[in-house]
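Recall that a protein's primary structure is simply its ordered list of amino acids. Everything else, from secondary elements to tertiary packing, is in principle encoded there. The following example makes that idea concrete.
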Amino acid sequence: MIETLNEFLLSFSSAVSNCSLYSGEHASVSEFITKTIDVLNILFNNSDSVEIMVIEDDIVVNKTLIRNAGIHVINLMKKLKRKGISRVDILKGVEFNEIKDFIVSLLDKEKTVKGYPHIVTGIVDIRLGGQKLAEDFKIGDISKLSGLQADGVREIFTGVSHFKKLETYGLEEIVLKFAAAFKRESNVLKLLCPVKSTSEYTYVHATNVAVLSMFQAESLGVREDLKHDIGIAALLHDVGKVFINVNILEKKEKLNDREWNEIKLHTVYGSKYLAKINGLTRLAPIVAYEHHLRFDGKGYPEIKNNSRKQHICSQIVAISDYFDALRSRRPYRKEQEFEEILFLMKNESEGMFNPFLLDNFIKSMFRVLSG
């Protein structure tokens, strides 16, 4: 049976790779889809469905781990992750055109994967030990959404250490929910979560920065796959703080020089940690490293090569980071009003931000505030 599962996965993933390289009409794509259906029909003799699950860097077919899968399967996993899909169920009775249409939609960067009669996609939530299918996806109460996602970020960050890989599927789900929320709620301020205690600041802040960064990306007309990656990178921009002494993070008094220098290292700690995680968007370690660099390069970490410029996605996250930091009550500072923050960002932050992105953010926020 393992040979048949391997044969199915190779045929299916080869169809995806060839469609990506050529088009859905290419002869090689038709050949591999036909081969896929032939092997599926063999598997359907023992079951009414074939399930594919992507779990971190592994792929599982019918609860069998497929080892040394090859480049086409790795490519398939990347495509599924990019769409926020970690489970695909192919049901008995599937036809050629269904598989072809599914592959084409999987490769379309601008569109979400739609439902098919015999192909069901969804999310495997490892933290909760269950699964969530696409057609059952509900956002629920918008006002509670960010709070729930902050809880999810807390769970994920709690598991972070030098000896344990980051659980990326919970992050994918959070970003997908916010992407869906933007389609229902135009007022981004309703998606921001208040900080209720010092200990939860890092998690709530990460969630809010993701919301604000995706809001900026949406206002700039960024394509869906890049907006998704910006959301992931924004959620993880401060992950390096997990490696900072909690007494420094939660200190109510002004930090001394030694403590401040330790805080600044969170950019280095975070980028090094994220760079080791396979399958994670490459924007994540870049944004973690650069979000305090400043547009003029005069921030931190100090860059010896002055020719290095802050990545545009880091510039987006830096604006979100600054805005949310000022609107949140901290041990050493009260929160500020939205209009006051926007005025401050416009008039007292020379060199900190990309002028075009800052102007777009301020105009977009005033449109929200004016209703």
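The chain is about 55% helix and 10% strand. Confidence is low (pLDDT under 50) at residues 125-140.
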